[in-house]
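Exercise 7.
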Amino acid sequence: MIDELNCCDDKMSVLFHKKLVFLDHPRTAGTSVQYCLGKLGGKTQKRHSMIYEKAPIIFSTVRNPYDLLVSWWLILMRRNHFDGDFLPFITSYQNYNFTRGGRLFYFVEASTDILRFETLQEDFSRVMEKAGLPQNKLHHRNATAHRKPYQEYYTSEIIQAVKDRFVLDLEFTGYEF
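Solution. The predicted structure, written as tokens, is:
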């Protein structure tokens, strides 16, 4: 587990607190979690050394991959990093910096607790209780604005492309379309 964490890079935020470590998978409500933990004295680091073994709780967030990919596509289009339809974005995903080793959620196996985007407040409260930290309400930060439900972006061809490309993430998290 610890060896897997050594491959973190400067794109991934990690929040250290004396009782827990939060591994942020981008576009999974990590900004909201980091903000809340920061108020409790947590420190965000990039290019970090290994102090994970000192924390009894290592947690990360996940999100339905179909929803997550729409979020990534829209944000990259808004930032002019991608100009094209959704299917070419899915089939050329390796050209973008949101995956590691073909995985969307590249550190879930290293986590003692996994919070789901869809039940984030409930899951976050459970982790705070487990860590003996005060309960805090998460506020939605850095949301993708003005978007339709993710299902409206998909055709059967795009659904199959996601299933083919992200089979490990879908199997591990149990998400379906």
